[in-house]
């Protein structure tokens, strides 16, 4: 466990395998979500990085996370990089991998993770695209929650339900706040209006999410209701 946001499961019969569950950080479109990764250490590890598979469930919610499970990251040698950005035998570690995924991939402005988009940071063109991308990433995070509650990864049934029992109300309150018209686009205190399409899609997802949370007895969700906007 790392700061209550990264959980790791080992397997007695497969010492080369780890399953990692990450909690989306506050202030990101992945907030309160759960994201699962399988790490497999090849025979030549630690001379080479682990192979990492992301449980995408068909959702492309980040430029670095593909629907086929590929994780695109310099540290995994699946993306270009230099120096300490890539895997360095004797220096790089599994902890570095999982913390990098949480901090560098599941961040507050994932739009700029797309290759070649770094130059758009703090430019008008970048600002025009980052909010729509965050809106879509948030919606896909909600759909991932619903999928996890219906079909949690093997061995994590209780973990998934416990997580959303504790955080379900927070998720729905965040949704309701977004439906009121504002979403933090990663600009500190500056807020931008949500798009009409986002509010419509969010209003369509919320009943399913509310039902899923109610079915597991999420704390305080009896006080949360969906609102038409």
From TrEMBL:
Domain UBC core: 1-146
GO molecular function: transferase activity
SMART domains membership: UBCc
PROSITE patterns: UBC_2
Domain of life (superkingdom): Eukaryota
Pfam families with a match to the protein in the record: UQ_con
Alphabetical UniProt keywords: Transferase, Ubl conjugation pathway
Record-linked InterPro entries: UBC (IPR000608), UBQ-conjugating_enzyme/RWD (IPR016135)
This protein's name: UBC core domain-containing protein
């Amino acid at each position: 466990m790392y700061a209550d946001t990264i959980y790791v499961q080992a397997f007695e019969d497969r010492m080369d395998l780890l399953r990692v569950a990450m909690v989306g950080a506050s202030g990101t479109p992945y907030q309160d979500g759960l994201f699962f990764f399988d790490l497999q250490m090849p025979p030549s590890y630690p001379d080479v990085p682990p192979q990492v598979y992301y449980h995408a469930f068909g959702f492309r919610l980040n430029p670095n996370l593909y629907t086929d499970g590929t994780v695109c990251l310099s540290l995994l040698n699946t993306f270009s990089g230099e120096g300490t950005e890539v895997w360095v035998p004797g220096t790089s570690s599994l902890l570095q991998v999982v913390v990098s995924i949480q901090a560098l991939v599941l961040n507050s402005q994932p739009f700029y993770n797309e290759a070649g988009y770094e130059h758009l940071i703090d430019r008008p063109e970048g600002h025009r695209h980052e909010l729509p991308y965050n809106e879509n990433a948030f919606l896909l995070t909600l759909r991932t929650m619903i999928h996890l509650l219906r079909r949690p990864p093997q061995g994590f049934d209780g973990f998934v339900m416990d997580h959303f029992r504790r955080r379900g109300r927070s998720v729905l309150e965040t949704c309701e706040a977004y439906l009121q018209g504002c979403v933090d686009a990663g600009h500190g205190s500056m807020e931008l209006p949500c798009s009409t399409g986002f509010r419509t899609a969010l209003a369509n997802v919320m009943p399913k999410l509310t039902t899923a949370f109610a079915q597991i007895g999420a704390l305080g969700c009896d006080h949360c209701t969906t609102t038409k906007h």
